[in-house]
């Protein structure tokens, strides 16, 4: 018997006489956040020692420029919803070694989660392929205020499994050395978030 | 290469050795106390925590009780998205599949993201035997690998090493494995992390193949999920052209939206964060983004044996958060190595015997006794695994399997006494009330000595004082926390 048939056979034998699974209690999905989710989002993103600002949509280009003040080589994905910063390279499928020589990347995101201070990228237009927001050391991420939801279940309801997803909560970090949190291991060591509107 | 646990002494001897190591005890006490405090804080923030726990347990039960259907669905969805699906009955079969993929592409080194399943099957050693070097990329795993050491905690495998020891390991061993540690490296955590970043980056940029596990595998959409902190996972999942993921069959969840409960329970229970820095989800191949070839190895290796145990199967709900380790008074004092397995602590004490069966291995058979049955693990567990209940059941199985053999005669005497108490609800209730009274009278929080037959227990352990209110009384009063 091949491994597949044998394992499935063992599973069926193990479950012989086992009952029906009960319903999943979903009460937790109705719990929301009391106040403006954007305020909470700003507070929680900052808790991870990421930099975060909120501005009117017209000010976004200035805020992006400010967030890039210490970066020289900047890359942007196709379809960025905001004007690309002057001099930025469009992503033309740079290899990993080339991306390693880029200082910063500017992208949008699909959804922001207030209770956890998370941005979720699904790597479509304006967000770029996964390597783009991984290899450069600075990630500037711009969201519209209406993309920020209160809770994880609200965010999941806006996501679909057909695209790859990356949930980002603060800069890369480790607590492996005596549990003291150190920002910045392999992913971008700096995360700057701009909320428009 | 990382050493293995084969031939470890049984728990009591290994624990005694660990208890004598004061550095280890100090590191562990500090680490577990820190994570416990963090976890308590972020769990207290969530009003609906108990509802989430009930939902988490129900989601995993829904998957396990229809596991055959969900596995077939998962296979179909993965295949439709360009992934090659393999099935592995045991560790040897799984290792051979991974090595075969490497060999088919003439690959001699792979980068790895921390995964319990690949540790369980001894993948690094198996690959080395076939001429393939596996580089661990999680900082703690790197420390363990470079130190030629064993992991001691699910979440923080190098929890037993302090910063000075880590610096020493980096300076000594990084050069042999690739880029050496920077000159003048200090033991400041930020500098040590930077050294790891530089050392591993050259490996990420060059690697053609990566090996991962998965925290969850969604049947309806073929989505795999990896939860991590450092970004080494993202590197492994994104940059190399070939990705092989070894996934235990119990990692399946039915639907994509089921992740909305598990992604809340896991980070808060595990690292004590509202959310871990990075979570990656992917459903097969995406043209122009990430690997060009992907394999998933669905691993049994004893999981169907555990599934067949009516009470024990709940252990397969485990999401490897390690909360039960951090609250366990036994683990806090002995550390992970004493359990002789990649799954230490309370969950290890039930999972290892369930996966491997009892009655054949002294080490495995000793694990269900590595507990004082205080119940802290159940209270902490985000998917409500009744670890104490399963421990008691497994002790009975060990005694049955070894009936008549001399080695377990001593345990048999003690356990018969315990069984007489535990088997009768009334007697247990009386014993617990007596114990609570003892605490109120003496005001002590730890008993290091009890009269016989209790002395058989306290001879090797301190016994935390019983709770003022026994668990069973609390359960009756609150309906299991629902009231
Ligand atoms: S048994 Fe529960 S508490 Fe322990 S690691 Fe598994 S999920 Fe976490």
From TrEMBL, chain A:
Secretion signal span: none
InterPro entries xrefs: FTHF_cligase-like_sf (IPR024185), LUD_dom (IPR003741), NagB/RpiA_transferase-like (IPR037171)
Superkingdom in the source lineage: Bacteria
Pfam families, A to Z: LUD_dom
Domain spans labelled LUD: 98-195
Name this polypeptide is given: Lactate utilization protein C
Native organism: Streptomyces hainanensis
Classification lineage: Bacteria, Bacillati, Actinomycetota, Actinomycetes, Kitasatosporales
């Amino acid at each position: 018997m091949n491994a597949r048939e044998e394992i499935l056979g063992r599973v069926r034998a193990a479950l012989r006489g086992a009952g029906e699974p009960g319903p999943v209690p979903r009460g937790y999905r109705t719990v929301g956040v009391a106040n403006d989710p954007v305020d909470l989002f700003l507070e929680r993103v900052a808790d991870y020692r990421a930099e975060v600002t909120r501005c009117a949509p017209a000010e976004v280009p200035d805020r992006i420029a400010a967030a890039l003040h210490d970066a020289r080589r900047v890359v942007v994905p196709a379809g960025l919803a905001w004007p690309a910063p002057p001099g930025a390279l469009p992503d033309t499928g740079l290899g990993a070694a080339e991306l390693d020589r880029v200082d910063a990347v500017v992208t949008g995101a699909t959804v922001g989660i207030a209770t956890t201070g998370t941005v979720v990228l699904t790597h479509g237009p304006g967000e770029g392929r996964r390597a783009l927001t991984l290899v450069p050391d600075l990630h500037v991420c711009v969201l519209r205020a209406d993309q920020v939801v209160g809770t994880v279940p609200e965010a999941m309801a806006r996501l679909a499994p057909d695209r790859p997803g990356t949930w980002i909560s603060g800069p890369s970090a480790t607590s492996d050395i005596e549990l003291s949190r150190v920002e910045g291991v392999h992913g971008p060591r700096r995360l700057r978030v701009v909320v428009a509107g | 290469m990382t050493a293995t646990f084969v031939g470890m002494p049984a728990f009591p001897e290994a624990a005694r050795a660990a208890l004598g190591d004061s550095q280890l005890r100090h590191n562990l006490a500090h680490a577990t106390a820190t994570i416990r405090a963090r976890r308590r804080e972020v769990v207290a923030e969530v009003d609906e925590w108990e509802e989430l726990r009930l939902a988490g347990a129900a989601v995993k039960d829904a998957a396990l009780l229809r596991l055959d259907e969900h596995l077939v669905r998962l296979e179909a969805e993965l295949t439709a998205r360009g992934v090659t699906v393999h099935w592995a009955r045991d560790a040897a079969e799984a290792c051979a599949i991974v090595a075969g993929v490497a060999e088919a592409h003439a690959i001699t080194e792979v980068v790895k993201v921390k995964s319990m399943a690949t540790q369980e099957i001894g993948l690094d050693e198996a690959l080395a035997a076939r001429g393939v070097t596996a580089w661990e990329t999680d900082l703690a795993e790197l420390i363990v690998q470079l130190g030629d050491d064993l992991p001691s905690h699910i979440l923080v495998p190098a929890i037993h090493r302090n910063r000075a020891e880590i610096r020493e390991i980096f300076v000594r061993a990084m050069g042999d494995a690739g880029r050496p540690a920077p000159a003048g490296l200090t033991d400041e955590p930020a500098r040590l992390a930077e050294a790891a970043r530089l050392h591993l980056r050259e490996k990420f940029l060059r690697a053609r193949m990566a090996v991962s596990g998965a925290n969850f595998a969604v049947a309806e959409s073929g989505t795999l999920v990896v939860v991590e902190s450092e970004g080494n996972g993202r590197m492994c999942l994104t940059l190399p052209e070939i990705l092989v993921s070894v996934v235990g069959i119990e990692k399946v969840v039915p639907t994509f939206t089921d992740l909305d409960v598990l992604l809340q329970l896991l980070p808060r229970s595990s690292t004590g964060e509202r959310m871990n820095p990075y979570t990656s989800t992917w459903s097969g191949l995406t043209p122009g983004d990430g690997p060009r070839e992907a394999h998933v190895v669905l691993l049994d290796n004893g999981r169907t044996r555990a599934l067949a145990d009516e009470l024990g199967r709940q252990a397969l709900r485990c999401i490897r958060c390690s909360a039960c380790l951090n609250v366990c008074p036994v683990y806090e004092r002995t550390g992970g190595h004493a359990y002789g397995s990649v799954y230490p602590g309370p969950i290890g004490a039930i999972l290892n015997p369930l996966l491997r069966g009892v009655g054949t291995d002294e080490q495995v058979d000793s694990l269900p006794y590595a507990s004082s049955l205080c119940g802290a693990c159940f209270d902490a567990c985000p998917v409500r695994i009744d670890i104490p209940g399963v421990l008691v059941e497994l002790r009975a199985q060990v005694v049955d399997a070894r009936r008549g053999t001399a080695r377990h005669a001593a345990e048999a005497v003690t356990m018969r006494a315990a069984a007489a108490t535990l088997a009768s609800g009334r007697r247990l209730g009386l014993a617990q009330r007596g114990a609570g009274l003892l605490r109120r009278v003496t005001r002590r929080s730890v008993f290091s000595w009890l009269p016989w037959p209790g002395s058989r227990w306290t001879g090797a352990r301190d016994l935390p004082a019983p709770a003022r209110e026994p668990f069973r009384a609390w359960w009756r009063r609150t309906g299991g926390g629902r009231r």
